[in-house]
Amino acid sequence: MAQTRHAVLPEQTHDEAAREEYCGTLRKFFTETLWPGTREVYAGLERPRFEREHGRPPMNVREVKQAIEHSFYYRASNLVGRCAQELLWDTVGESIERQLPALRAKAKPRSEARGSVRINPDLAIPRYVDSVDIHVMPGNFHTERGEDDVYAGALYDRGVYHFAYGGMGPENDKLGVAMAGWLKSRFPDFQPKRILDMGCGPGFSTLPWKQAYPDAEVHGIDIGAPTIRYAHARAESLGVPVHFSQQDAVQTDFADGSFDLVTSCLLTHEMPVHLIRRMFAETYRLLGAGGMSLIDGGAPPADGPEEEFFTTWFNRNANEPFSAGLRNLDLAEAFATAGFPADAFFTSGARDAVYLKGMGGTKQAGGKSAGYVGTVKR
Ligand SMILES: C[S@@+](CC[C@H](N)C(=O)[O-])C[C@H]1O[C@@H](n2cnc3c(N)ncnc32)[C@H](O)[C@@H]1O
């Protein structure tokens, strides 16, 4: 299965394609074979050893780590995981740098566009974005490498495809498609006319909303200008009209009550808890009466120290320092504090672990997958 071609998707030479394929295969080997093996090493060897020494099992994440961290298997698999992560961005990034001027030219907004793009050069980039290269992705989603830049968007588009070894689908949109499909089947009478996707990235989670509700006006906002420019060009090329703007999800320039549905996918696990709370308050302001908020945070709730340890490799090794905060946040309380009625809170239960099914692989890294969480404004 190849990635769907569109106007701003980077091209590969033969050698670049081979190197990218290798990165995806290494990621798959780490995710589906090496890392799940640490559970076996822990259960068979390291946990019993810890219990013999302490007369009790490990009580918290720190002690689980302490029990296993001297294991050669654990250290070696960590090393492979981290190297695969760095190698992925280096490999895809080198290919994009070679063709960046052409990509910037192709991404320039055109008069015949059906959607739109707005960039805010004065937008303050929050410290948690500016000081952490999320996923070890050089420059994160916001760094400008020149005028009209699209590097970060291109890097994420091509990088995620290989990161997930194709498991996000040819348009990297399986999470968004699944989320919109779930909402439609769970709330068939809910027909949003204006939809906002916060932290939209290159639009993988945004276009599926327009496809699910063709009559709706769909907006996507993201903190990163290069990501937003790329998202616009990608959406236009794929023929899906969406309105993109560079904005901070905690404080947007939309009027009160502008939307019927405010959604986000894989955003909140990258944010500090105090800003997630501000984002929920902003969501409350943006929704009209009867409007719905729906999020896929990308991190399941904490479920005991061992499960938390084995499902937070990224947190410790690939620059996702804030996901532990989301896992331990009481989302029902956070929505209620933002103004939503306590009895309107709902959850979907675990959703499909999407990308782990990539490239035909079925063996899972273990652990629960995240589900959807939402609420309604009355
Ligand atoms: C992991 S990506 C997810 C992208 C997309 N929603 C998806 O599912 O593929 C997280 C995105 O959130 C954006 N982001 C982080 N903090 C933000 C904020 N405060 N306001 C708007 N966007 C933000 C990042 O720039 C990044 O593009």
Automatic annotation (TrEMBL):
The keyword Ribonucleoprotein does not apply. The keyword Nuclease does not apply. Residues 195-291 form the Methyltransferase domain. Pfam families: Methyltransf_25. Keywords: Methyltransferase, Transferase. One of its GO terms (biological process) is methylation. GO terms for molecular function: methyltransferase activity. CDD domains: AdoMet_MTases (cd02440). SUPFAM superfamilies: S-adenosyl-L-methionine-dependent methyltransferases. InterPro entries: Methyltransf_25, SAM-dependent_MTases_sf. Signal peptide: none annotated. PANTHER family: 2-METHOXY-6-POLYPRENYL-1,4-BENZOQUINOL METHYLASE, MITOCHONDRIAL, METHYLTRANSFERASE. This is Class I SAM-dependent methyltransferase. It comes from Sphingomonas chungangi.
